[in-house]
Amino acid sequence: MAPGMMASEARQPQDEWLLEQGFSSNVPLLNLTSHPKETSNSPKDPKTTGTFEPDYSHDTDGTSEDRALTFAEERLGWEGYIEWEDYPEKKAKAAEILESRVFPPPPEFQYGNLPTTNPVLEGVRWKMWHKAVGGPLTSVPEESWLRVVQEKHADMLHLLEFPYNGEPPKRLVTAKPITPNPLHFVRNHGGIPNIEPEAFELRLDGLVKNPMKISLADLQNESLFPRQSTLVTIQCSGTRRIEQINEYPGEGDEMINAPWAEGAIGTAKWTGVSLKKVIKHCGGLVDGGKHVELYGADTYFKQNKVMNYVVSVPYSKVKINEVLLAWEMNGEPLPKIHGAPLRAVVYGYIGARSVKWLYRIKVIDQPSRAPVQSKEYLYFNSQVGKHNQAYSMGINIQEMPVSSAIMEPWSKQVVVHEGRITVKGWAYSGGGRWPERVEVSSDGGYIWYEVPGENLSEKHKFSWRTWHIDLPVDHEGWIELTVRCWDNSLNTQPTFVRSAWNWGLHVTSSCHRVKIYSVNKAKERTRRRLQEFEDRNEPFLPLTRPTEFPTQSPEDYEAFWESHAPRDVED
């Protein structure tokens, strides 16, 4: 700034400091190649918020009424559902509509701070896509949110309004070893269909001897299918994604890469019938049947294409009775937001394979080529990114690795204690493995204390274990609590989040680290200082606010130097 210039006259861009420090996604590209070209950070359409009213004026079919006929609901009692997979012409028409419009880019949520709103992100693009296609999808965003309000706990953290993605706050994640239904996390990929149980039927086809349709009543008929209940933890591959984002930003779709914290995991007792029994009822497989496609009734969007939500699991998983068709959750009818009337529960696998609103099962000869299975939920090498990524370069995420997390204390929390800090959390391992040992450190992972066995919840093959420990802590100031888990196969966690970082920001399986400010009241000087704050009626928080009173009297200061060497030397 020139001498005499007012701050308001400074020519430095207001956001330059944010750019310099990496707090903005608008930091300019630095091109050091021999033939640099002009580039722009500006999206095609900067609009990222607001409402959207479909404009049908330039469409060949003309009106919203025609749109409703083109994409009409074809089954009574199946609201908000469109069958896409049987009708290529419908897919083509929807793609034509979407390609004729310009939609906003995803909101930026990885550079700088997350919005402080709840919901954190709105999902504007996803709402716009549903309304652009129209027909039964027009009202799905609003109806889905009403379902959230009706079925989920009032304290849920809404990461994404639509499609709904939400998790419980830390204080409630491990409050009980079995997650109450209203507190179980929700990771939806589309709107919430409303399918009446009496109108429901499950279609089984593909490489089975006797393709058929089965009603929910028949599935629940124990003379046809033996019923079973299993305690199963479901975990999203995005659990703890916020740690990877804080380390290095990655792919940034607000739904696919939602900024999950530690609550995208939950445990419930699921009741239903083994898929193996249902396939046996269809006469079993014909030659070549090796994988099972699972179809969800929600509508999914990918690069201006529409489809039903489709993934697959190997038949080898089905054969050992580890895929359940569930209609009950914790002894209650399956909530609509969790997939009613029927969903899949795939034991030990990534949550994305436990398809909600399951309406079709197709046996095929290879893993599904549907986009969710073949182009998403891929784990890339850390050198793979926007500059070179190809779908075939990623590992398909199926079984979840060993992981754990601290639920209490919270990050950057001031903790006043007397030499021990109570630490609480969860530990989990997928693929039919279970947490065998949990260890916690107060110094970033140099010295580990084992959680006593009696402080771990009951052991189950497909379930997490919640835990707590009174951790010895003598040191004060900023410390780093760290947790790691060993499963029964002696698998453990990478030490640092950098070791787990990947472009899709999936599977944050590294040791969970929580920085806290330790105030040890067992130390006499600390005890006296806290008493002084109390006597003066001065708040100790916020921590960074300078102390409003002298921290040492002039007399004490002078007395100290009378008995100690001076700070400076004279020769």
Can you give a write-up of this model?
By secondary structure, the protein is an alpha+beta fold. It contains 14 helices and 25 strands. Residues 45-52 and 54-62 have low confidence and may be disordered.
How is the biggest beta sheet arranged?
5 strands, mixed
Question: What's the tally of helices?
Answer: 14
Instruction: State the oligomer.
Output: single chain
In order across it, which strands form the biggest sheet?
Answer: 7-6-15-10-11
User: In which range does the helix fraction lie?
Assistant: 10-25%
Features:
5-stranded antiparallel sheet, 5-stranded mixed sheet, 18% helix, 571 residues, heme binding
Summarize the structure.
This protein is α+β, with helices and mostly antiparallel strands and 571 residues long. The chain is built from 14 helices and 25 strands.
List the helices and strands and how they pair.
Elements: H1 16-20, H2 64-70, E1 78-79, H3 88-99, H4 124-133, H5 140-151, E2 157-160, E3 165-167, H6 170-173, E4 186-187, E5 194-195, E6 201-206, E7 212-215, H7 216-219, E8 228-235, H8 241-247, E9 265-274, H9 275-281, E10 291-302, E11 305-314, H10 315-319, E12 323-329, E13 332-333, E14 343-346, E15 358-364, H11 371-374, E16 378-379, E17 395-396, E18 403-408, E19 414-417, E20 420-428, E21 435-441, E22 449-450, E23 465-472, E24 477-487, H12 497-500, E25 512-520, H13 524-535, H14 554-562
Parallel strand pairs: 6-15, 19-25
Antiparallel strand pairs: 1-5, 2-3, 3-4, 6-7, 8-9, 9-12, 10-11, 10-15, 12-13, 12-14, 16-17, 18-20, 20-23, 21-22, 21-24, 24-25
Protein name: Sulfite oxidase
Domain Moybdenum cofactor oxidoreductase dimerisation: 397-517
InterPro entries: Ig_E-set (IPR014756), MoCF_OxRdtse_dimer (IPR005066), Mopterin_OxRdtase_euk (IPR008335), OxRdtase_Mopterin-bd_dom (IPR000572), OxRdtase_Mopterin-bd_sf (IPR036374)
